[in-house]
Structure formats: C-alpha cells, structure tokens
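fwd from M.: "can u put these together and see what the complex looks like"

so here's what she sent:
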Amino acid sequence: MHNAPTGRLRPSAKRFVGEYSIILITLLMIAISTALKGWTFLSLSNFINIVRSNAVVGTIAFGMSLVIISGNIDLSVGAQMVAVASVTLTVVEGVANPVLGAILGVLTAVGLSCTLSLITGIIVTKGRVPSFIVTLGMQYIYRSILVYSLNGGGTTTKNAAYMAISNHALFGWLPMMIVYFFAMAYLFYYISKHTKLGRHIYAVGSNEKATRLSGIKTDRIKILAFVLLGFTIGIAAVVESSRMGSINSTSSGISYELNAIAMAVIGGVAMEGGKGKLSSTMFGAFIFGLINNILTLIGMNTKLVNAVKGAIIIFAVLVQRKSKER
Amino acid sequence: MPERALQMTGIVKTYGGVPVLQNVDLSVERGEIHALLGENGAGKTTLMNILGGVVSMDRGAIELFGEKASIHSPADAQALGIAFIHQELNVVNDLTVYENMFLGAELTRFGQLDVRRMCKLTQEVFDRMNVSIDPRQMMSQLETSYKQIVEIAKSLLREARIIIMDEPTTSLTQREIEKVFSIMRNLTREGGATILFISHKLGEVVEFCDAYTVLRNGEKVAEGRILQPDGSKISQTDIARMMVGRDVLGVKVYEEREIGEELLSVENLSVKGAVNDVSFTLRKGEVVGITGLLGDGKEQLVGCLFGDIPKQSGRVALSGRPVDIRHPAQGRRKGIGFLPSNRKENAIIKDFSVKHNITIVTLDELCRGTTISKKRERAAAEEARDRLSIKVQNIDNPITSLSGGNQQKAVLSKWLRARPKVMILSNPTQGVDVGAKNEIYAQIMELAKGGIGVIITSGEAQEISRICDRALVMYHGSLQGELSREELTEENIMILSTGGALT
C-alpha cells in the first residue's frame, strides 16, 4: 500500500544494492571460495569447470525462467530432456554419415522438444489445467515410457562428429559447452528485454486479465514461453548426450527441473510471475555451481550438500524480498 | 457532558523526508457520521492508518472517549474498539460468510468450533441490518456489494465503537449505497457507534454525513457541520473548493461538438444471463453513457462489444460493416479501445513501470522487426504523459507509485496511443478525486471532439449527466430507456434504473 504516492523512488544506495544484489552475492561466494582454497581458486580453468558442470541445467534454467515469469512452471524438463536425447541418439546412430547424423540429431532434438513443449502449452492453456499438474503428470509419463522402452538402460552413439559438439574446445582451450551456455544466456536475455514477445510474457505473468484486456492473445504468449523452454531442453539434450555419447533412462536428468528452478529463483525470478531478470538467472547458475564447489572444498559430506543448497535457496530469496521492500 | 468519541491532536507523519501529515487535528463527536475529505495524497488514508494501527505516527496524541490511547498495531486498535473497513475488500473468498465474520475470533465449545453459535450470531447481525445473507454461503458467491456489507457487519459484530470506512461505496450502486447508509444510521443511533467516512463522492457526503474535516496537502484546512446554522446543507461546490483550493464542481465540462455519421450499430445483442436484446447506435464524436443499478448488465454489454465476453445473439456493425468480435485482440484490431473498471485487477500491470504500461497496447508500432526500439518507446511514453498531464517524476518509476487519478490517466493513454475509433470507458473516474475527475472529463471531451465515438459506463448519475450527449439506462439486462441531453437528469436516470417509465 502506498500512502503517499509521489512518483518518486527511495535513496540510491539502497536501490543499488537491491538491483545488483545478485552480482554482489556471486562475488561474495567467490571470495569465500578463495579464502577457503587459496588463490588457486581464481584460475580460469577452475571457472571453466564450474560453468561447464552447470551448463546443461543452466541452459534449461533460461527457458524455465521465461515460463515461470509467464505465470507457469514445468516439472517435466529433466524427463523430457532424457526422452529427447534418447530419440536423438537413436537418429544419430542410425545415420551412416557422421556429420549428417550429427546435424539430423540436432534438428531432431530441437524439433521434438519444441513439439512436446507445444503440446504441454496447449494442454495448460486450452485445457485450463494448472501447469504444475500437467507437467507433474508428464514427468511420470516420460520417465516411465523411457525406462520401459530402454529397459532401465540407455542409448549410446559412437558418432565422433556428434560427440564433438560438446567436447570440442575453441582455440584449443575454450570448451564449446561454455560457448553454448553464454550464447543461450544472451539469446534469452535479448528475448526477455528487447522483443515484443518478451514484454508480453512479463505482462501476462504480472496480470493476465489486464494483458488480455489490452488486446493481447495471452494463451498464445503462454504457449510460446513453453516452446522457448522446449528449445532450451532440446539444446540441453544435445549437449548432455554428446558429452559422453550416451544417455541413461534411470540416471540421467534427475532433479534437473528442480535445479533449474533453483537457479532461476536464486537469480530473482518470482514464483508468482511477472518478475525476474534473465541476466540474474545466469548469476543464479553461477551461484548454484559455486555452492557445490564451496561445499566440496570444505569437505562437506556429499549427502548433506542438498540440505545446504536448500537453505541457501531460501536465504537468497529472503535477501531479495527484503531488498525490494519499501 | 459526554466526552468526544475521538480527538486526534498534532499528528505528524513523514515518509522518507516527505511530510505527509503536518500537525493535523481531528475531532469527532459521539454518534456522528464524520466525513474525512481531501484529494488523493492529501493524507486521509495515512491519518486513518494511524488510527487503525496500520502505521505509527511520528508525533501527536490520540484520545478515545476522553482516555489517552496508545495504538501501535491493528490488534491494539481492535482492542480499543476501532474497526477499519478498507477500500479494498479484506475478505477471504474461499471461506464462508460466518467464517469470515469470526476470522481471528472464532467461537469454540469444548475445543471445537461452535459453528451453530457463530451462524446464529451472524444471522442476528444481518437481521439487525435488515439484509438477507446466508451465513453458510461461500464468500466467493456473493456480489461485491454484499461482500462489502459483510465487512460492515463484521465491525458491528465486534461491537466497534469507532468504525472507519475507507471509500466503502466505490463498487456499490445507488440502491446498495442507500442501504449501506441506512445501516450506518442505525449503527450510530441505536448501536452507539461513531463512523469516520472517507469518500470522494461529495453527493453522498452531503446527503448522509453529519460533519466533515477537510485535508489538503497534509494539513487540516477546514472542518464543520454539514447542516448550516440557517438550516440548509453545505453545498458540494463549497466542499470541493475547500478540498482543491479552487472551484472545481461548477466547472462546465460539457462542450458542444459536431456529431458525425454512424460508427457503431448494435442490434438485438444478448449475452447469456446478463444482457437481453439491446439495440443502440453510436455516432462519431458522440459521448453515450450507459448506466443502471446492480445487475443491469452494462459491464457485460460493453465487455461483449470489446470481445471479452461471448455474444449469445445479435448483430454488431462498425461503420456499416458487420463484425464478429470474439477476443479483445480482435476488438483492438477493429479499432475499439477499452478502459475496464477496477483498474487494479483489470487494467494495471503492477510490475511494470509507467512507461511500459503506456506502451503495452501499441508495442507493434515501436518495434523494428521483433526488436523494441527503446528510443521510440521513451518518446512515445513521454508524449503520452505530456498529452494527458500525468504527474510523474520519471516514467521508469513503477506504475504503483502513481496516485489513482494519474494511474487512470496512464491506462487511458495506453489506449489513446492505439487511435481507436470507438473508445469504451468503464467507470472512468473510479477512485479518482474531484480535482483529477475534471481532467479526465476534459480528456473524454477531447476524444469526442476528435471524432472518436465514446461509450461511458458509470453508476454515478451525476457523472453521466455532466458529460454525456445521450444516456442508455439499463434494467436487469434490458434497455429500459434512452435519455437525450435535455432529458438527462439524475431523477430521470433513477426512474428508468428502477424499472419505471418516463411520463
């Protein structure tokens, strides 16, 4: 409630901390890590490792951010990714020419994933079923069909061209996985901030009724947000399955959806929709990776790592809410 | 001599360096219905929030019935017998009426909820108020006006000594308002309650209140009794002048202008359960008002024209060509603009800045391909701001930092940018103070002078008679009658609204 609407904002120091809190938190964590491990922490190869181990989930987090901002959520991304990767690897293995196989694989991944997300989007909007429920159901469906058809095992490929997608290093030292991650970060940042679609996604998430009454086809916007997420899942499927040349129906993609949501939320995306910056999601991914790093460094029991992660997620959101309050 | 019900003295409140209340005094006698008046931002809500324990004052003293009172939380206020009925409904839709009535003060018997007694007591209150509401009904099923009545009943139940009502009638129609006021009268006469009443509707204030205090820019500028020594009531014009510091009500807003050819033709339009066989036309440059009481169907009628509500039967034509509009996106493409009522739920995108709210309808024009041109967007928003004189320091500020009147101007400007041929405004001055009302009326006149056909829906007969060329009065979904400008009086509107006929 604003009792004295004056059209003004509060003092700039507080605002600065609020706006850039995510970067400050990232720097803080890097400082903690450096204190723990020493200057060797601040090496390029270490950072590359941290980003690379979170690149796949991080990519999905960008798409997830848009879906959450639009007022929905998707709990099936991990399972969808594995399903898409399985089909992709099958295609890749089935084509004699390695390069052609790799290309067809990528096209299959993106095409299939986008189509699956399109279907999800249509059920949510036209069927008027909450996305939480729809995607919860789809997660069970995907996973179950996968485990059934692959008998709990996986799919593999020896296609070198396909495996080069994730394993190639630019200029000899820059892993392509990093490049994909930053490319997606930029693409989604651009969509969210500079395109009409991005603006509409924020509007729908903030107030669907008002957006509809502004003459905007809100169902279409929500579906497009899902399709964009589908795109990131397709890319993630390729990157993940090309790394080892394999994907497993029981062990791959576990908790990817929750981790993607965590990255988005740490980055400031609000569960109620309408709020959040894609650039911050990127930092959310860094922080997520740094948490893992720090906990390993201090020798925390791997079984307790998730407990700490959970506490940090809650803390990160608390800090953001406080700094946004007037 | 009985003590005053309420004496607030020297109240000071500052928000981050900005003085919101400067040395304000407020005296309310027992059993009074006391109106607290002032433009948006004058400090009325802040003053009441202090009394209600929602915010704390920086300096000052509060005395209740002669005793010093220390109020630091809503619980403190409630314990002292102060009930605060807020502007926005504070009801829980997913609970029943009696559950809402006893929220936080539930009755138990041997550790279990005593539903029977709660329902009985609730029913008793409703009987006293002469309203028929089923205590076991779900809150969500009640009309907004009834929800408001339940809130008032709640304060009765808690035997509040002082009831603060912050614009309780904005979503009520004339009939319901009269009912609320007769209940208020009973509360003060028989119940011994004292009522503090914040409202922008000066007609209500003059008709129903006993005394008034006027705030302007955080200071008390006037107080007095509605009934003057000579037996007459103070005029709305005088009150408005005290609120704004200049003459506002007497200002003539209606202007003659050229009325052009037929723009919109509606034939036998019906909307399921709400509108029954309505026909009318709208011409270029005309301002047509649609009014009526609760349940008249005017909201559904215009919602259907815009494409938000499905049409059951009938024909609509724009500039002679038949149209079938099924979605607001289509309505916009066909050249219709729509400013919905209840802007907080329906028109304002609260997480957006003023600038982004202004450009949301017309982003297409500001794009190069898929990319939004930030430069063009800023220029467009600034132009809109200047055109409508929206008071805002920086258009990148959140829309929620604007006052009600300026917010309304912002959402109006988002549609003006689309250059509609037909502009529908639902309750255009809802929650807008007298000063800003005139500015919005002037804007409406500008639109009409520019050749746009304007449809206004409003429950305020005074508003309709001030700016409309013609008025359509609806009754239970049907068009009860049409009034030309000469026939446009509040009395005629009331006759038709209640199902009567003009002689």
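replying to her w this: The interface with chain B takes residues 2-11, 194-197, 199-200, 202-203, 205-207, 209-217, 274-275 of chain A (CB under 8 Å).
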